[in-house]
Amino acid sequence: MSDRRNHQPGFATRAIHHGYDPATAQGALTPPIYMTSTYAFGSTEEGAALFRGEREGYIYGRTKNPTQALLETRLADLEGAEAGLALASGMAAISATLQTLCQTGDRIVADRILYGNTFALLSKGLSRFGITTEFVDFTDTAAVAAALSTPAKLVYFETPANPNLRVIDIARISTLARAAGALTVVDNTFATPVLQRPIALGADLVVHSATKYLGGHGDLLAGAVVGPAALVAEIRGHGLRFLTGATISPLTAFLILRGLKTLELRLAQHVRSATAVAQLLQDHPAVARLYYPGLPSHPQHAVAARQMSGGGGLVAFELKGGFEAGVGFMDRVTLAHRAVSLGDAETLVQHPASMTHAAYGADERARHGIPDGLVRLSIGLETTEDILDDIVAALGGH
C-alpha cells in the first residue's frame, strides 16, 4: 500500500473533518451550534481591537458566527478557495457579491441562460442603480471576446446553466475575462465541488445556492460565495453587513455541515440515476430534444468531459407537443413531485416556461433557448427503476 500521509485527504474525508477538532468543544463529535446574536469582550481594549480589525474574533451575529465560520472554512476547502462566506440564500450570495463588486457606471457581461431570479436581478434590479448588463451567448467565445472589448467589471455565468444545462468553458471564459481586466463569477450550484471546481479552472469567485445539493434534503435556505480572502472579506463587510443583512442562521449552517458529510455519496447516486433517465429519454418518440451533459449527444459534451467528473443530477428535455405536452407530463407523474428547487432526495419536476423562468418574457425565452415544451427533472435518491417507471408512465407508456 502506498504511503498517503503526505497526500491531501480525499473529498469525503475533508467534507466530514476539515476545520474541526472535537478537543476544542469538550470532545463533542458533532460541532456545536452557537445560538447567540452577540459576543462579550474580556475588556474594553479587546473589543476596540476587534472593531479596528486588529484582532480575530466575533462581535455580532449578523456578520460572523462560529458555526457559520466552520461551514465557510469547509466550503472554501472543498472548492479549492482561500475563503468563504455563507449567507441566507443563493440569491443573497449573488446579490451581496454583485452589489459589493459593482457600482454606478459599471458593466457586467453575463451569459444569456440564467436562473430566472438572477436574470431579473441583472436585467431589472441592478439597472435601477446604474449598473448595466450585456447578455451574451457564452458558448460563443468570439461573442464574449467582442463584449469584453468594452470595459466590464465582471463576467457572470452558470455551468451547467439553469434550466437547459448548457455547459460553459470555464477556463476559456476566465482567460478572456482576465485579459480584459474583469473578474469571473461562476454559479456552481448544479455541479457542486464534487463534480466541478471553477477556481482551479481560473474563476475568481464561485457562488452557490446551498439550498440545493449542499444541504441536500429540501429543509433549508442558504447560499455561499468562495474565492480570494480579500474579496470575500469585502463581500462580508459590505454585501452582508449592510447592503443585504442576509445572515445565515446558526442552525442552517449546522444542517449544511451535516449535508456536506454525505455530499459525495449522494451525488454519485444522483448521477447514476440521472444517466439512466437520460439514456431512456434520448431515443423516446415523445422527446424532441434531450439535454444531459454526461451523454455525447449534448452540444457541449466535450467541454463537460474536460471540466466535470460526471453529468450531474439534472436532466432537461423538450417534448414535441410544446407547452401542453410539458404541462401534461408534469400532471401525470406520480412518484416525482411538481416543485421548483433541486438537489433533494425526492425527484422533482418543473416547467420553466410557467415556473422558474416566468421572469423571462415569451420572446426572451425563445431567444434564450428555453422552449415552451422544456421540462427539467431533478433526479432524486429513490430506487432508479422506480424513477424510470414513473417517467415512462407520464410520457404515455410509449
From TrEMBL:
GO MF annotation terms: carbon-sulfur lyase activity; pyridoxal phosphate binding
Gene Ontology biological process terms from the UniProt entry: methionine biosynthetic process; transsulfuration
Cofactors required: pyridoxal 5'-phosphate
Modification type N6-(pyridoxal phosphate)lysine: residues: K212
Signal sequence interval, chain numbering: none
Keywords, sorted A to Z: Lyase, Pyridoxal phosphate
CDD domains: CGS_like
Cellular-component GO terms for this entry: cytoplasm
Protein family membership: Belongs to the trans-sulfuration enzymes family.
PANTHER family from the UniProt entry: CYSTATHIONINE GAMMA-LYASE, TRANS-SULFURATION ENZYME FAMILY MEMBER
Protein name from the UniProt record: Methionine-gamma-lyase
